[in-house]
Amino acid sequence: MNSLPANSPRWFTEIISEKGGILSFYDYMNIALNNPTNGYYGSGKAKIGQNGDFVTSPSLSDDFSHLLAIQLEEWILQIKNKLNLKKRITVLEFGSGKGCLLGGIINYFLNKNSQILNDISFKIIDLNEGMIEIQKINLKKFLEKGIDIKWVSLSDLEDDNLNGIVIAHEVLDAFCVERIQFKKGVIYQQGVQLNKENQTLDFINLQLTEEIKKFIKEIKNELGVNIPPEDAPEEWTTELNIDNLSWLENLSRKINNGILLIIDYAIDSKKYYSPQKNDGTILAYKNQRAFREILHSPGEFDLTCHICSDLLIYQAKLAGFESLGLVKQGEALLLLGLAQKLFEIQNNLKNDLSQALIRREAMLRLVDPICLGDFKWFVFKKSSNKEFSIESKCINKSI
Ligand SMILES: C[S@@+](CC[C@H](N)C(=O)[O-])C[C@H]1O[C@@H](n2cnc3c(N)ncnc32)[C@H](O)[C@@H]1O
Fold this sequence. Notes:
By secondary structure, the protein is of the alpha/beta class. The protein has a domain at 47-175 and 243-383: Rossmann fold (3-Layer(aba) Sandwich). 36% of the residues lie in helices and 24% in strands. A seven-stranded mixed sheet has the order 5-4-3-6-11-18-17, with helices on both faces. Strand 8 and strand 9 form a beta hairpin. The longest helix has 21 residues, at 63-83. The chain binds S-adenosylmethionine (SAM). Residues 41, 48, 56, 58-59, 94-97, 100-101, 125-128, 131, 169-171, 174-175 line the site of S-adenosylmethionine. Residues 41, 48, 56, 58-59, 94-97, 100-101, 125-128, 131, 169-171, 174-175 line the site of S-adenosylmethionine (SAM).
């Protein structure tokens, strides 16, 4: 796949040497992304946005967050009224990046329904201190207005106590993965090895761990998908999202009544583990370009991997969530009023055509089926109360 071996920067050489010169792919990815001093997110050097390494929907403009806020408003009112809650309703975001999604949501409420802000407690959980610092700077203006935003960790939250909405927007794709490779009839765990003589990194095949064997068996038993698939070509390689289940379980434990909305790149298991996807889904991003050279310049590139949709739904169920629907982003945004918003932009910005065109183009990117429009919205419910039902505008019931 890659032009290999890849040069190892000095900081990375020191870390991998301390660990004996070999890392699992999971550990490689974790250091490259989350190392506090040099990791892409850990150090806070991640550049998200039009002038950065990659765009996310809320980093394009506030329009995405405003449409999502319409859905949040509907959910919040239902949760409040049905549960007759006296406490504030939590809106918790995992992995906020620069904080633009929450910023856009709060802006929407300030303009359209500022009363509702008295009922909401916003919370952010982010693994990386470097990103938290950026979020605090970007959201400072809302804190100064008295909006309730807190940075917490999951362990700060009491079990069975969260009533509200949890959003994970483009964060599961940043969770670290294991990689496996099929070679000469055997499946190996992929690792990363340092060549001490010339300070370079290359892949190495390792014996499968018991955890990986169990994961592969579960995919076969529960989803009926073989890994490797029949007809897998030599050196067929794929990723295993091994952190999702424990994340779902830990989160589920905290929720009393609530919605979990996961928005991410996702494909089903048949495609994910097909012989044609012979190099997995992982990509490195820099300057708005995708690369397959995932060992190059650790810490300088974003590394991102697709989610396996049916596996995620199965695991969410194991963790106690009920799936309310899976919808493509393009459809969800249309159901939330994207067409009407386009019309408003055209009308409101009649005298500023260039601004209207920029906003329009950004909105069309959100629904472009070969781009952000193909993102999947997974809507889950977790409830201690069997009677607790919830309607969702973003899910088309007739499909
Ligand atoms: C791709 S960015 C998401 C950007 C943001 N949600 C947006 O849409 O613009 C990934 C974010 O997730 C954070 N992150 C990565 N792994 C995480 C984890 N296990 N728990 C919480 N946050 C995590 C990163 O620090 C980073 O802020």
